[in-house]
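Project standup — Tuesday

K.O.: blocked on the structure for the chain from last sprint. Re-posting the sequence here as requested.
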Amino acid sequence: MDTAAAAKGFLGLLLLVAALCCNAARAQTPVFACDASNATVAGYGFCDRSASAAARAADLLSRLTLAEKVGFLVNKQAALPRLGIPAYEWWSEALHGVSYVGPGTQFSSLVPGATSFPQPILTAASFNASLFRAIGEVVSNEARAMHNVGLAGLTFWSPNINIFRDPRWGRGQETPGEDPLLASKYAVGYVAGLQDAGGGGGDALKVAACCKHYTAYDVDNWKGVERYTFDAVVSKQDLDDTFQPPFKSCVIDGNVASVMCSYNKVNGTPTCADKDLLSGVIRGDWKLNGYIVSDCDSVDVLYNNQHYTKNPEDAAAITIKSGLDLNCGNFLAQHTVAAVQAGKLSESDVDRAITNNFIVLMRLGFFDGDPRKLPFGGLGPKDVCTSSNQELAREAARQGIVLLKNTGALPLSAKSIKSMAVIGPNANASFTMIGNYEGTPCKYTTPLQGLGASVATVYQPGCTNVGCSGNSLQLSAATQAAASADVTVLVVGADQSIERESLDRTSLLLPGQQPQLVSAVANASMGPVILVIMSGGPFDISFAKSSDKISAILWVGYPGEAGGAALADILFGYHNPSGRLPVTWYPASFADKVPMTDMRMRPDASTGYPGRTYRFYTGDTVYAFGDGLSYTNFAHHLVSAPKQVAVPLAEGHACYTEHCLSVEAAGDHCDSLAFDLHLRVRNAGKTAGRHTVFLFSSPPSVHNAPAKHLLGFEKVSLEPGQAGVVAFKVDVCKELSVVDELGNRKLALGSHTLHVGDLKHTLTLKV
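H.V.: unblocked you, prediction finished:
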């Protein structure tokens, strides 16, 4: 017998069997929903692309059993082969670039990395709304490109738009800062960039964004107080004045496809089980066009950690009935059927939830077959990490970097520097620059590499890590390097070992022995010393601010993959800094005196409580919200603004005859009630530059109103000597109103002071 031939024949049989098995498996586990090559599936109503998303969702719903329905309540959606529906993972992240944090996204040899932009706190410092959107557009292009080759989902749980209320918060780096208007503008811009599918205002989505974490969430783990059990006690006034506005804007103005409820309780109720907050506000008042998702395992948390319900079925019932549509986790898949069988929940409640989820997937094209044959189907690996995308990451960092001090040393002249000492635990940072919720970047340019591209450098870390304990301090080598260099750049600050999700700070001082390192190097340096702070949150660096030995200070946030190149662009004057601080920098004593868990925004003089954020804080600052210097000077001139505005109340309104401090900021009298303010801004220096024009208002002292609040901002670019006109259109009821003690918006009557730089203009609101 020919054994070789027999073996060959047997091998052929094995390959045939394997092929048949693979084909059978492929038939049972569809790759695309509504695959046009499958005639049976293509004939289903939910696959009819000419029908409305709601009609298609209703058809799909009608074909499901209860046991199948609950599988669509969780992020890890199982395949349903009998209807040709593949598995789907809802959880992907795109905080500042496509991330590997969510299980819905992976990198591979096909797409080894994606563009990593600065953390949002630095992007927000640009105060450039068009940049917020441009970044979102690039991220969604790369996300779609990865989706088309099976490496990413279509639902991205970003952005984080919580207010950076307390400087110790570990996740402040993920947010756009402390101001509700800035957070709102960021949310709307970034979401539009992610979601906009073009095509003239249809309901289609490029990818689905998610604004999180709703609401009053900004304590992670502070002195043993954890987010899983923290009860945020928030007044109605603070809730509607500070915490809610970014979410309201995200839903109403940004038309976001999702909102994520948070782990914490608000006034005793877990947010994911609060019917007023979910069904009442998000879906009722704001008309969310999308789905509500829980933070991961937060339904499990409210049962097992917060002990909010007596049994898991009650937890499943209360969250779904409150308005939750999707559970990140597996809790609802495990306990919803039992909740229905026990009469705690109706099947129609489940139907409502998964219908919201289905409609979003319809809008994304998930039920339209092969994504490569759909809009954006031409995107692929070639569209990830393009040169233009990487340049935008560098530009975003350039626009966000904030110059806090400059005695004249900056910009540096590369031609006159023979040697530069680059010192500090973040001086050669790479991974640190991309913060958290990161993805694999296209490449890194560290500070050392960025500076070394223009001048000769000598590098000393000074400390082996940012913790900079006594054992890791390397003072001698650092001071020697500074003593022999023409200029010294010190790059210090934090990383994820100091501030991150699940880790809040307890101190506002630079970590460990970093202050000693900075002072020793500054004293030893032969030339100018440039101090660079790389961090998400603020630090008390008063010692450096007041030191004659330190010529300049910059804050660079976590500047993304191109951070080192952007830093060099600023230091050598290739680009003029224009970033402004999106948060208040408090003195260290703030952390000693004010518990992080005290959610009150407004000061209380009777107890010495100083309040929070620039809108209410009454204490001293190291640097203020909006601070930031340029290499040039800008002058502002008021061209036109009204001196008074009459509020046209209805005939017979009581305030015509009585003295009223305020009137409702809603109703017919608010229709078209607006005015224009025009400014001339001139570059009075010798260097071209960008400039952020802030319009603030100080309202009358009623309803514990803010000392001042931001009405708008515009970014202009001007050549030396050039002037431009900046126009603000102020919606009186929306932008000049304040929130009263009951959470209602009111127009304060009387004198409002409008601020632009050093300019002040008094505007009287009257009836």
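K.O.: great, moving the ticket to review. The radius of gyration is 28 Å. The CA atoms of residues 117 and 436 lie 11 Å apart.
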